[in-house]
Recover the amino acids of this structure.
């Protein structure tokens, strides 16, 4: 079973494509979960989910300035203190895990995934970092929790869908679902 997570809406967005994609793919070997955009609640939510054994864990979030599915390479042990979460809070400290490693690399085969998605016509890119907001925090926390288990884990930023009108060229939800389905299929 693969764990596929998305996030609830944030930053004035009416919806979050990552939650929609996760829910669209639930079933048939995929369990979907929607994470809170909340620094205090995201850790416990992930901890409960990661207590189970998974074939792989794929976390997703939306990046409104992007026009491709972005396969992220790195999660950093840092939280941006300039941007509040949905509860209006900024983190009290910048480290996600005090004393934890500075960064974790994805354990998903991003180069092979990139090649197969591109060949199938899915707009895709490889991105260096998941940023410093809650997407990065979730990615870091998941890799930290799964490091000893060896469970493949990575993060995919999704572009906005046409109905969100966020400025970047949008990508249809169906295309995003197709791309993430291909990722999940490759991890089985």
């Amino acid at each position: 079973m693969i764990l596929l997570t998305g996030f609830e809406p944030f930053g004035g967005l009416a919806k979050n494509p990552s939650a929609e994609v996760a829910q669209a793919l639930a079933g048939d070997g995929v369990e979907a979960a929607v994470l809170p955009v909340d620094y205090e609640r995201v850790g416990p939510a992930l901890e409960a989910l990661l207590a189970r054994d998974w074939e792989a864990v794929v976390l997703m979030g939306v990046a409104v300035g992007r026009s491709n599915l972005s396969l992220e390479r790195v999660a950093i042990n840092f939280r941006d203190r300039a941007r509040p979460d949905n509860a209006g809070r900024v983190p009290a400290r910048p480290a996600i895990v005090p004393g934890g490693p500075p960064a974790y690399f994805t354990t998903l085969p991003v180069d092979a995934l990139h090649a197969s998605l591109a060949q199938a016509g899915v707009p895709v890119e490889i991105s260096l970092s998941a940023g410093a907001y809650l997407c990065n925090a979730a990615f870091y926390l998941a890799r930290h929790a799964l490091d000893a288990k060896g469970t493949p884990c990575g993060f995919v930023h999704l572009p906005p869908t046409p109905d969100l009108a966020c400025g970047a060229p949008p990508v249809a939800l169906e295309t995003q679902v197709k791309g993430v389905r291909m990722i999940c299929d490759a991890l089985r």
Summary: The longest helix spans residues 173-186. Residues 115 and 124 are 9 Å apart (CA to CA).
